[in-house]
Amino acid sequence: MNFLRVMLGGFAILVSMSSLVNAADQTAGTINGYQPKWWKEAVVYQVYPRSFKDSNGDGIGDLKGITSKLDYLQSLGVDVIWLSPHYDSPNADNGYDIRDYRKVMKEFGTMADFDELLKGVKQRHMRLVLDLVVNHTSDEHHWFVESRKSKDNPYRDYYIWRPAKDGHEPNNWTSFFSGSAWKFDSTTNEYYLHLFAVKQPDLNWDNPKVRNEVYDLMKFWLDKGVDGFRMDVIPFISKPAGLADIPPEYLSRPQYFYTQGPHLHEYLREMNKEVLSKYDVMTVGEAFGVTLEQTPQLVDERRHELDMIFNFDAVRIAHPGREWIGYTLPKLKAIYTEQDRALDAHSWNTIFLSNHDNPRVVSAFGDDSEKYRVPSAKLLATMLLTLKGTPFIYQGDELGMTNYPFKSLDQYDDIEVKNAWKELVDTKQVTPEQFLAQAQKVARDNSRTPMQWDDSANGGFSSGPKTWLAVNPNYQQINAKQEVADPNSIYNYFRKMLEFRKTTKAFAYGAYEDLDPQNPKIFAYTRTLGGEKYLVVLNFSPDAIEYRLPKTIEKGRLVMSNYPSKQEGFQVLRLRGWEALIYKL
Fold first, then answer.
1. Is 183 helix (H, G, I), strand (E, B) or coil?
2. Stretch 342-357: mean pLDDT, rounded?
3. For residue 283, what are the β-bridge partners?
């Protein structure tokens, strides 16, 4: 490293040239060309309230339960908590069917409980982001109750109604929860659109009254002090022109058709102008159906739409549809390289491999066997926290929680699984055994089982006799109490990684380079900011591998490892199964 001799108050000090380069860059207002923002440097932790912590013994997680665990989250070191829907809902889709946007779901508590949670988050110098679900509402929402009464009701145009076409549905659109996206309503003899469940009618965003209602409810929560929104299926708000049939090439992947509405960007810019630009907040869109090439149109900061979106190429690589097909490491690496190349300094990425809609990260991308669960979960943490973009962690990832051993349909709660069973098993397209084998790997309920807090009954999640969804039977071996106390646990490795990440801006703004893209087992990459450079080496296999580093990398100091005993050499690394190493070069 080059140093410069600087006189300060009569004393000569050595200053690294890299720090001067970085400082100069920052003085100009950018870091490595990027406009610095708090949310670009933050790590986000997703809380699924129903499954996080039950405070009153009814078997359902609640807001008081979350508040009681804020010290745990602060100790972990996360910056932002993303709260999945907490609004009043009949729960046809676990809170993503909202009956009243200004009320708290009864099972989760009261508005006073929410205010207490928000206050506790702020006191601990963290931030709170809410789920914004405004593509659709519940069919029990006041607007829809009125809308279905008559064709001339003032709320009729809050939703999308159409007459039958030749005695059938208005078009061939399909629901993500199986079957047609249209439901006939005998009161007015018309169909309403629902891209998701029958009880989730789509809002008509072409109606300016609807948009203003949405902006008002956003202000309601922002004025309380929340720090932004994760926006559920936001690219679907503008429907394709004329509600034309899905073309044949999109029938197996309708999400890429539903994002082609002509007014999407106009509506998002209007939302930004009317609401978001007036607050210091972060926004992240669930951009299901948006290609990487289309991403800058949503997140380029000069367009004033969204800050970030979730791109699903990585998280769904092993199950792009309903079936588990597995993944190869070169394909996963290629996704991260493509994202880095497609997004310039005006667009920002997200890094995640889990959420409430996908299986557990260690089961899907690591090795959840007894021997390798711990090292592979630590390896995945290393990758998630050192790739380029804002990392999102899902509750329980920090413990290495695994998929649930589902054996029968009655063990599932998820509407997606139940509807798919009717569509595929009841019609004899697949056998029950085939269906259950696939569901066990890909079902959303894998990630929705309750948090495992300790080895007491129900994993310490609830004092009640029964939980809304069964606790994974491995809670006696995998739980927060045991991991917090064990210095070599996954939890404490996450803590160390999060602390380490805060010591440098290289993992936020640094350039990314994949050093060995075709290697089937090793993921080796660098992050470089000015003169500061880090090398990350990950062994994505249970095999012991001798790995020779590129000749351009001559020396480095080991700063992080997921094994207690350290590596000796440098030029040739003798990697153990699922070993993760970070070197400062």
1. strand
2. 96
3. 229
Return d(Cα 140, Cα 91) in angstroms, integer. 11
CA 502 to chain centre: 21
d(CA 367, CA 541): 8
Answer yes or no: are the C-beta atoms of 191 and 162 closer than 8 Å. yes
Report which secondary-structure segment, H or E, holds 273. helix 264-274
C-alpha 495/C-alpha 380 separation (Å) is 14
Among 177, 178, 92, 200, smallest CA distance to 427 is for: 178
Mean pLDDT of 485-509: 96
Task: Give, in degrees to the nearest 5, the angle at Cα 315 between 472 and 536.
Answer: 100
**Residue 18 scores a pLDDT above 60:** no
Residue 28: predicted pLDDT: 59
The rounded percent of the chain whose pLDDT value lies above 90 is 82
A 10 A CB-CB count for 25 gives 18
pLDDT at 439: 79
Question: What residues are paired with 193 via a beta bridge?
Answer: 182
Q: Which pLDDT score, from 0 to 100, does residue 406 have?
A: 84
**H-state helical runs in 260-345:** 264-274, 295-299, 329-342
d(CA 334, CA 331): 5
What are the phi and psi torsion angles at 529 (to 5°)? -135, 110
Task: Compute CA distances 60 → 80, 327, 397, 426, whole Å.
Answer: 23, 35, 20, 31
Q: Which residues contact 470 (CB under 8 A, 6 or more apart)?
A: 404, 411, 449
**What's the CA gap between 126 and 465, in Å, rounded?**
33
β-partners of residue 5 are 14
Q: Within 13 Å and on the Cβ side, how many CA atoms surround 154?
A: 2
Catalytic residues: 232, 286
Helix (H) or strand (E) holding 391: strand 390-394
Whole-prediction pTM: 0.92
